[in-house]
Amino acid sequence: MQSGVIARWFPRRPSPPKVASPFDPASFKPGLKTRLLVLQPTPFCNIRCDYCYLPDRDARSRMELATVRWAVQRLVDDGLLGSTLTLVWHAGEPLAMPVGFYAEAFEMVQQAIGSFCTVSHSIQTNAMLINDEWCRLFKHHSVRIGVSIDGPADLHDAHRRTRRGHGTHERVMRGIGKLREHGIPFHVIAVVTAATFDRADEFARFFEQLGVQELGCNFDEVEGSYGQSSMTGHEDAHRRFLDRMFEISANSGGGLRLREFMAANWLIANPLPTTTYRGAEIPDNLQTLPFAIVNVAWNGDFGCFSPELLGQASVEYDSFVLGNVQRDGYFSSAQREPFARLWAAILQGVSTCRQTCTHFSFCGGGSPVNKFYENNDLASAETLYCRAMVKRPFDLALQRAQLMVARSKSDLQRR
Known about the structure:
The chain is of the alpha/beta class. The chain has helices spanning 3-9, 65-77, 99-113, 132-140, 153-157, 169-181, 200-210, 235-251, 259-269, 330-333, 337-356, 360-363, 368-375, 384-414, and strands at residues 28-29, 34-39, 47-49, 81-89, 118-125, 144-148, 160-162, 186-192, 214-219, 257-258, 274-277, 280-283, 293-296, 301-304, 323-324. It has one domain (26-331): TIM Barrel, CATH 3.20.20. It has 14 helices and 15 strands. A ten-stranded mixed sheet has the order 10-9-8-6-5-4-2-13-14-15. A three-stranded antiparallel sheet has the order 1-11-12. It has a two-stranded antiparallel ribbon with strand order 3-7. Helix 9 (259-269) crosses helix 14.
């Protein structure tokens, strides 16, 4: 699709002002609220995915319950809670922790928040450790479960291997079997690589036969120590893959809902709402709004913006650590120099996207972590991630919507 088509439909907004210090939460209208709290119960993972971005997945450190309490209490103290909060346990293998940890943590979170805010818990897991005890916990607390599986065994085992180099597909399928035995719904996040692109039908059929109704297709992004995506040089193949997956999803009658398809269709009908910052509008992108996402590591170190940034090596941005929940409030951390540097760069990146990208109203400034690793510049604009996860799905969905409108007009004219 030609970018000019989108530009005519959706004009750009005026540029926002440059960041100024000190940071004032009252400058945002409506007020800042945390919608996603990402807690890392442990950095340890029981497998070795070759595309993983985590720097400390061998470490067996564990989050203390007191850290959980502080992470939530800081939200309460700073007035960052709205009517709902999604709490995601991620960034390592969450089920490497004892079941009892979560039973206590869930109760502690509820006590700290009270009835003011509705909390939903999500766990993203490789599913290899799921057993009856875990399933009882999931059902009792209505935990939303995401399973990481990359499709048929050969595609999955090519990248998701045990620490001894063996495939993990069979064990993941056993874990999924437990979820199904207990009647626990789950969604799937699959990482697609260049090897997946010519196998869309087989890939989709695998998940349909597995009974998966909600599927998200990430790709092997350049992040952390993973420095080369297989997507590079294969973007046309990815476009064909997405187009076919969209067709399969559209023809499934809701049996296989593709996250990228649903998100693009939603944005076509409902462009992003905006937040006003110092008189200028900023699209509602959780990765570029301060504290819309709060990320807390196992030891209490915290950051905001892209969850994958926290703890990544950076002298300029102090490894993207803004403070520690055991001693710092979230807003108080924003008064210090590390936050000021980070916010200034991200805000400049939003401005750059606004000036250069016809999809800006549907993205709101991109993903800081991808800008950092792909362009080595948080203030930059387009990335491979932008093209693969925002622009390409949006353009394909828009083309389909336009085709449907044209067919409807043609049908009416023939009547």
